[in-house]
Amino acid sequence: MNVSLWDVAAKAGVSATTVSRVLNAKKDTRVADATRQRVLTVASEMNYSPSRAARTLRSRSTMNIGVVVSCQRNPFFAELLDSLERLVVDAEYDVLTDTGHRVQGQGLRGWPVDGIIMWASPLYSIEDYLGQSVVGVPTVYLGERRPDNSDYVAHDAHQGATLALGHLWEKGHRKIAFVVPESAPYLVTDERRVAYLDFCFAKRIEPMFINVAGGNLVGKVDHSAYRHGGYAVGVSLAEASADERPTAVLCYNDLIAIGLINGSLTKNLRVPEDIAVVGFDGIDEGRYHLKTLTSVVSPYVRSCEAALSILLDRIAGSGSVVPRQIVHPMSLRVGASS
């Protein structure tokens, strides 16, 4: 059985980056002697060592890891990127980032990297962004489960959305809407949407989708427009009659939820008395809002650690060739908005 860096880290009770530092030929003063000895002992007991080919490749290493996220204007991705950068630097690599829909691929194209971590919809791969130049480059995906044989670390968005909907149901809400971005191919199979439809079917309630383009707004909604779109929906709901509007909404992300709350309050629609609001992602901004946001919280730090551990194994050429696919559960942070 092939032993991976991840296996050694788990048994030694340390992170994979710590194992990487200890097994590096150069002594890393940031690792305590006791920890170093424990890792070396565990590695020896488990017969762990990078392959000869991996060591040869390592000598030609670029010491660069590429990180691709959707957009830094969304605080969720800014927090995710910050966590990844800290972890990658701790592993003694440099970080090359690529963000933004319109310039996707320009940040990394032409720069050699040892591996890539990418937040992506299950419908897209790193080749869709960077082309054939990255074929064969170790890549670990973050986000949702993927239908292919790639390495990924996913958040259980279906379970998270079900938690949120169950919370609203327990609060007595029977008219629950799902507020989503404008139609996009990935939304058809999005786990949040699937969970919402499953919940409505199980509870025998009518699904109600509200588009964040809302009302008379025209144009594609991107990350920078989520708050604006949510705000417009909030205004629209406040102007609707009590019979027409839902009593609660689950929003696709926290930015939509925050915008919706502000739009509702501006028009004197009370939150949560008239309408309960739940977001998705668990960004820090929601915790400090006037109406603290109830949100499905992403375990992004834990997921970033797992993704980097898998990637370090792939770069080292150690561990099983079987795809590593990890799914982390999400949690619900209840605030004043519901």
Throw out a few tags for this protein.
single chain, 338 residues, alpha/beta, six-stranded parallel beta sheet, six-stranded mixed beta sheet, 39% helix
Architecture blueprint of SSEs:
Elements: H1 5-12, H2 16-23, H3 33-45, H4 52-59, E1 64-68, H5 75-90, E2 94-98, E3 115-120, H6 126-130, E4 139-143, E5 151-155, H7 157-170, E6 176-180, H8 191-203, E7 209-211, H9 226-239, E8 248-251, H10 254-266, E9 276-281, H11 284-287, E10 294-297, H12 300-316, E11 325-328, E12 331-333
Helix pairs in contact: 1-2, 1-3, 5-12, 7-8, 9-10
Detailed description of the structure:
Helix 1 crosses helix 3 (33-45), helix 7 runs parallel beside helix 8 and helix 9 runs parallel beside helix 10 (254-266). Among the domains are: 1-49, lambda repressor-like DNA-binding domains (434 Repressor (Amino-terminal Domain), Orthogonal Bundle), CATH 1.10.260.40; 157-298, Response regulator (Rossmann fold). 39% of the residues lie in helices and 16% in strands. The chain is an alpha/beta fold and 338 residues long. The chain starts with a helix and ends in a 5-residue tail after the last strand. The protein has twelve helices and twelve strands. The model is unreliable at 51-59 and 214-221 (pLDDT under 50). It has helices at 5-12, 16-23, 33-45, 52-59, 75-90, 126-130, 157-170, 191-203, 226-239, 254-266, 284-287, 300-316; strands at 64-68, 94-98, 115-120, 139-143, 151-155, 176-180, 209-211, 248-251, 276-281, 294-297, 325-328, 331-333.
